[in-house]
């Protein structure tokens, strides 16, 4: 269950990061509320998962999911550039997440 919580927390991190961008510096109420609610839920799930997962593993997987997801959202929906080096960096993050998960017992 802890891994499911980290996965959900990571997905919520993508939502709050994206809505934070859309909030235009917290000047738009709708995206600001989405940001704050999903941020709180993401932190809660991460904290819950950390009761049984190692700190470094849980935090790295959570931030990695958020970073990769935010990268994809930026490219797909916000028209951010997609270059070879950016894709290579994203692939390295993904490799780090996979290796960290495989290297953690339980």
From TrEMBL:
Keyword Lipid biosynthesis part of the UniProt annotation: no
Family note: Belongs to the drug/metabolite transporter (DMT) superfamily. Small multidrug resistance (SMR) (TC 2.A.7.1) family. Gdx/SugE subfamily.
Molecular-function annotations in GO: transmembrane transporter activity
Subcellular location: Cell membrane
Highest taxon above the source species: Bacteria
PANTHER family the record matches: GUANIDINIUM EXPORTER (PTHR30561:SF0), SMR FAMILY PROTON-DEPENDENT DRUG EFFLUX TRANSPORTER SUGE (PTHR30561)
Cellular component GO terms, alphabetical: plasma membrane
Listed name of the protein: Guanidinium exporter
Classification via InterPro entries: EmrE-like, Small_drug/metabolite_transptr, Small_multidrug_res
Keywords, ordered alphabetically: Cell membrane, Membrane, Transmembrane, Transmembrane helix, Transport
Main localization, broad class: membrane
Coiled-coil parts of chain: none
Zinc as UniProt keyword: no
Its membrane topology: Multi-pass membrane protein
A Pfam family reported for this protein in Swiss-Prot or TrEMBL: Multi_Drug_Res
A single GO BP: xenobiotic detoxification by transmembrane export across the plasma membrane
Membrane-spanning parts: 33-50, 57-78, 84-103
């Amino acid at each position: 269950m802890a891994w499911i919580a980290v996965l959900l927390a990571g997905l919520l991190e993508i939502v709050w990061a994206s809505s934070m961008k859309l909030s235009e510096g917290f000047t738009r109420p709708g995206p600001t509320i989405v940001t704050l609610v999903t941020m709180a839920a993401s932190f809660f799930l991460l904290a819950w998962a950390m009761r049984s997962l190692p700190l470094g593993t849980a935090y790295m997987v959570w931030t990695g999911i958020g970073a990769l997801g935010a990268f994809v959202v930026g490219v797909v929906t916000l028209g951010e550039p997609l270059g070879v080096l950016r894709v290579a960096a994203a692939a390295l993050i993904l490799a780090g997440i996979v290796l960290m998960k495989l290297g953690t017992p339980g």
